[in-house]
Amino acid sequence: MKPGVKTSRFAAALAGCLFLLAALRPALAAEGGELVAGHPQSEALRLGEIMYMDGVLPSGAPLRAIVNGDIEIKGTMVTCRNCHLRSGLGSLEGGVFSPPTNGAKLYAPLRGGQDVPGGAMKAGSLKFTRPAYNDESLVVALREGIDAKGRKMSTAMPRYLLEDGDVAILVHYLKNLSSKISPGVSQEEIAFAVVVSEGVDPRDRAALLEPIEAYVREEWNAQQSTLLFTWGRAPLRKIALRVWELKGPPESWGGQLEERYREQPVFALLGGKVQGKWDPIHEFCERNRIPCILPVTDLPVVSKSDLSTLYFSKGYYQEGEAAAKFLARVLELPAEKRVVQVFRDNDEGNALARGFSETWKKLGNAVQTDSVLPRGGPAGPGFWEQLAAAHPDSVLLSWLGPDDLAGLSALGELPRRPSLLVFSSTMLGGRPFLIPDGVRDFTYITYPSLLPGEGAYGETIVTNWSRVRKIARPDAPETTKVFFLTRLLTRVLTDIGDDLYRGFFLDLFDESTDQVTISANYPRLSFGPGQRYASKGCYIITLTKGPEPRMVRQSDWVIY
Predict the structure, then answer these.
(1) Is residue 184 within 8 Å of residue 266, measured between CB atoms?
(2) How far apart are the first and last CA of the chain?
(3) I want to staple 88 with a disulfide (CB 3.0 to 4.6 A). Which of 102, 250, 397, 512 is the partner?
(4) What is each CA distance from 52 to 70, 135, 184, 464, in whole angstroms?
(5) How many other CB atoms are there within 10 angstroms of residue 249's CB atom?
(6) 452: closest CA among 354, 389, 543, 358?
């Protein structure tokens, strides 16, 4: 809410609302058992959240508002979250400051930067003060765009077209938004957990846990006496780090996590690595609204609506997605060309195939079919010739691993071979050079990370940091990714202050600037409200021939 000049309309608008608010005040109360616009308070909170986050009224109709004086917009275009973020603690984007709109801040005076949650730059962007809102003046602000001091707000602030019951629900939600410190926080500590499962290679487990434990022990907790907030705020809390090890089948992991959480609540999950899909941990975090920050997985949940987990990328899915974009938009395959996906019925193969199919349906013209192999041993030396005979002159998306490459080189000698082959570097164990010389002329490979030699600066930073802390494998993907996580975590924990709400914690990650130097894994990691996958690109490469082949980029990192 951005004040402008003082207007005499305030007095009239306030007078017009006094009678209405007198009748609504019992319903607007957050305490006790009163109904809110005819709804139990828990239901009113649910409906208010949908209004705030998604721009949908309790009736199911889109939320409507006027902006810039006379332009009516609706739905997601006018959600409060767009400017004030999910926590309601405000944002600073492109130099535009949006102040807090949660109850604890709205119903208290805004005296200066010390009352603005977040970093010093955001706090320093406050250019006005105001008295505390009450129920009446908050309704005026929502409907008329006039703040608690009687000033007209910026025309960018929507003037919401709300019926009495709807405005009562929204006010009730704002009064309760970010009103209680989240679980896992004490006066001295913030508790975090790292999730690992049995079956993870012990060396990978160590590469994950060693750097995060060293960060907590030797960096964050060791420096608390020197880390103080600006604006006269209290010293930062220390981190209490727990390791939650999951055992047994993935179907039991959700119950194990719930039990661990009941015993020792944590504020958020950091990193983590499991054998197989991340789904059970993702679902646990969604149920309990627990942030999960940058787990090390190539099998994340790919969702447009879930909000609690921030991933490095979509993993295997993203490689399939990139292949579809490349074939449709760069190579522009004609409609008469046939595209055949060949993959095993396992988690990795299914994720790649789903990423390609869902994207191809939106972009591609050629007919796509699937050839699904059962789980099991190698395909055998005659497999590729049989595949070529069944699908001559087709594009074969070969989502297979090293064990299935026997006999692949023979395709280059066939009179009726596939026109193109596409492989996944990750499925090949990060070893694209396993593709034999005989088929490299017509083979493309998805490559979802930095090419060799591109990440030298980030690798040097991680190596030097790891050497000081005696980390055994500084070049391991788990180590380099955890190092990146800790760099972001330092900024977020410094800025969060005493406003230890999980929604704000996620908002601060979402507000991180794009990273192009300190990652040893990706060319660019970018962030933004509601963006759950920081890496949004993938290279498509080819290989030169010979005993010392080179990777040749055939696409930009972001494939449009």
Answers:
(1) yes
(2) 36
(3) 102
(4) 22, 17, 26, 45
(5) 9
(6) 543
Residue with tokens 């391991």, as numbered in its chain = 476
Structure-token pair, residue 176: 């309760």
The DSSP letter of residue 80 is T
Phi-psi region of 345 (alpha: psi -120 to 50; beta: other; left: phi over 0): beta
Average pLDDT over residues 223-234: 54
| Tokens found for residue 392 | 């001559």
CB 448 within 8 A of CB 432: no
Helix orientation angle between 477-496 and 456-468, rounded to the nearest 10 degrees: 80
Phi, psi of 114 (to 5 degrees): -65, -20
> What are 73's strand-pairing partners?
65
Query: Rounded to two decimals, what is the model's pTM?
Result: 0.89
Amino acid symbol at 149: K
Cα 206-403-453 angle, rounded to 5 deg: 55
Could you read off the pLDDT of 72-115 as tens digits, one per residue? 999 999 899 998 999 999 887 767 788 899 989 999 999 988 88
Q: Let me know: does 293 contact 502? Beta carbons within 8 Å.
A: no
Q: Is the dihedral of CA 219, 220, 225, 226 positive or negative?
A: positive
User: Distance (Å, rounded) from C-alpha 427 to C-alpha 526?
Assistant: 25
- Residue 223: the pLDDT is 82
pLDDT in tens, 267-299: 999 999 999 999 999 999 999 999 999 999 999
Among candidate residues 162, 169, 163, the one with its CA nearest the CA of residue 47: 169
Please state the separation of Cα 227 from the chain's center in Å. 28
